[in-house]
């Protein structure tokens, strides 16, 4: 599912730790979040005619029949070359504004992280759910998107990366925190190293849910995703239909109907395929052969200075294996984007009529 992340140390004096505690460096982190988004999507070059909605959609899902049908109308499919290891599209890049030919995929980090958690809970009847950082990285690294030159970027609540143990990805609690990817910073604050590495690379933007009035807003990341997606005419990878945000007036839409239509046309579903073709007997054999020893629980953190919990039981005495911490070699998991029902219908319609354009969203 994932490999061990490169360790990077964050002390109590670091900007990351300070931002999590709400001290003076928080405004700098806020500006940095905007810079991260700008770095990820702004690129030099002249804007060109944007691809029609159906052609762009076909590139997202690799619908070769739609792409072939559209090629005769002058809408070519530019993909990265096989030797382009960076995932950047060959040819001139264009700015991420309406009317350009680039495609952007915004990943709803919280939704994706919990999506894999729920998948593992359902697959193995686990008693707990732990949001997974590997899910976010899998979506960002989805090979067909990178090969075709689609740019990916994730927005995720700050506390999923730096926060208390029950809020950070791969945390969930003192008994489930994964020491392979989470670091203890001190004073009850933890950091997901895997996601923080992606923040430093400019591939993830942290969204504060604190709010200017101190009361906080759990919808802050959703509103940011909708606002940025409209700005860049981007696709949104999320199973959230955003129905509870249609009355928002400060995210750039003319009204609830416009926001609903944008979400209908631009939101794509996602799924995680867990151990395809492998039954429980085979998985148990793979686990035993791997000799993998989970580093799960607060007792693996020498610097931890909070309340102690008894180490989780392992082996034959374990209630259930820590599936959320298993590496890909032990528990293979694959990310896949899924078209919505309306997109499936549109595919058939477009192939029959070759009607590539849709009304502009106001």
Helix and strand topology:
Elements: H1 15-21, H2 26-41, H3 53-61, H4 64-71, E1 104-108, H5 109-124, H6 133-140, H7 143-147, E2 151-157, E3 162-163, E4 182-186, E5 189-192, H8 193-201, E6 204-207, H9 220-232, E7 235-237, H10 256-266, E8 267-274, H11 280-290, E9 333-338, H12 341-353
Parallel strand pairs: 1-2, 1-7, 2-6, 7-8
Antiparallel strand pairs: 3-5, 4-5, 8-9
Helix pairs in contact: 3-4, 5-6
Could you please describe the fold and organization of this structure?
- The chain is of the alpha/beta class.
- The protein has one domain (16-72, 99-353): Rossmann fold, CATH 3.40.50.
- It contains twelve helices and nine strands.
- The chain has helices at residues 15-21, 26-41, 53-61, 64-71, 109-124, 133-140, 143-147, 193-201, 220-232, 256-266, 280-290, 341-353, and strands spanning 104-108, 151-157, 162-163, 182-186, 189-192, 204-207, 235-237, 267-274, 333-338.
- It has a six-stranded mixed sheet with strand order 6-2-1-7-8-9, with helices on both faces. Strands 3-5-4 form a three-stranded antiparallel sheet.
- Helix 3 (53-61) runs antiparallel to helix 4 and helix 5 packs across helix 6.
- Residues 104-249 form the RNase NYN domain.
- Residues 1-14 have a biased composition (Polar residues).
- Residues 1-51, 70-99 are annotated as: Disordered.
- Residues 74-86 have a biased composition (Acidic residues).
